[in-house]
Amino acid sequence: MKPYSKEERSWMYYDWANSAYSIIITTAVFPLFYKAAATNAGIRPADSTAYLGYTLAITTFILALLGPILGTIADYKGLKKRFFTFFFSMGILSTAALVFIPSDDWMLLLIFYTLTALGFNGSIVFYDAFIVDVTTEARMNNVSARGFALGYVGGTIPFLLAIAIIVLAQNEWIPLSVVAASRIAFLLTAVWWGLFAIPLFRNVKQLYYVEREPRLIRASFKRLGNTFKQIRAYKSLFLFLFAYFFFIDGVGTIISLATAYGTDLGISSTSLLIILFINQVVAAPCAILYGKLAEKYTGKVMLYVGIIIYIFVCIYAYFLRTTLDFWIIAMLVSSSQGGIQAISRAYFAKLVPKHNANEFFGFYSIFGKFASVLGPLLVGITAQVTGNTSSGVFSLIFLFLIGMILLAYVPSDKKLGATSMSDEKKVEPLT
């Protein structure tokens, strides 16, 4: 394989940049910070986990509604990076603002967490769509997987620094409280995210676009309506999206609620932070491995592998009792979480018409985000009804099973090139 181009490397480095948010805010430090605040306020553990799940559901619902509309508008010349910049800035600023929120105000923490999630996930919609501008179809699996791998490595560095500061504070080896140490982790996230996003801003450009028209918003809704009318011509694409809707729901929910789940089981915050750090280390080479195996066995096969592993995780989680059990689950998740996301992104990118990439990645977002409404709600409701978080995690098994069944009707990677070309020939221009 030829060396990565400057554009490919710059695009991949945004995975390196934003993974600090993924691990510190989404998965590790913020959930522990929030759970401590909720506990101090007298909130029952299962309830505080449910509230976090509901917050995730509300956030992703908002993004799901906005995704296709924003994506359609961003397909016009020169607008993709502007939308990316807007959401990127929202994410950076609201993450930095977490530093100043009182540690006992769990409600305000959830509000600002919503803003950070909107900024982070909104920027990802347009970042994912940039893949068609930086590489070819033949290299997409590899480039996408390498991006996720870089993300795990990049996320590990600030996370390790955050762990070190928090552990030192917990043991009173430095003159900082755990609250202050956690706030430093939030600030570190914002700085890391902003610094390593610079290559994308400098070197990645929108190569595929639709020429601007008068009344952009009205024209965008018209294009969006035309796409819905011609859905049958994109049968393979939308069938994949329905499969993706279900299996990525389970993946995202497990990632987002893992720390809260571990806390409910009585696992110490120090153990959780160490487990999550090792998770990042293991996930990086596994994501690269998924990309290489997808080139050999097809992406569809590797998606099946990832789904099966997650089904086993859901079953195992129901019987989880000890820290060792949590270690085993964490390693299973780390073996597949980056791979299944990277292969899904590349698989979808091969199906989309390049000039309308933002519009279609808007649909990719809406399916992924609406899925992320269902998963946290399912876990939250089940946890509250049963009083057992493990039952909530087990309920996710049904989402993976449905996704696997639907995936069976999606064409193999070997047929995607021909399928996507024939789809584009059958579809009239969307402008």
Automatic annotation (TrEMBL):
Membrane topology: Multi-pass membrane protein
Domain of life assignment: Bacteria
Major facilitator superfamily (MFS) profile domain span: 1-415
Intracellular or extracellular location(s): Cell membrane
PROSITE patterns, per the entry: MFS
Main location: membrane
TM stretches of this protein: 12-34, 54-76, 83-101, 107-127, 148-169, 181-201, 237-261, 267-289, 301-320, 326-348, 360-381, 393-411
UniProt cross-references to InterPro entries, sorted A to Z: Atg22-like, ATG22/LtaA_families, MFS_dom, MFS_trans_sf
Pfam annotation, one family: ATG22
Keywords noted in UniProt: Membrane, Transmembrane, Transmembrane helix, Transport
An annotated Gene Ontology molecular function: transmembrane transporter activity
Annotated Gene Ontology cellular component terms: plasma membrane
Protein name: Putative efflux transporter
The species this protein was found in: Fictibacillus macauensis ZFHKF-1
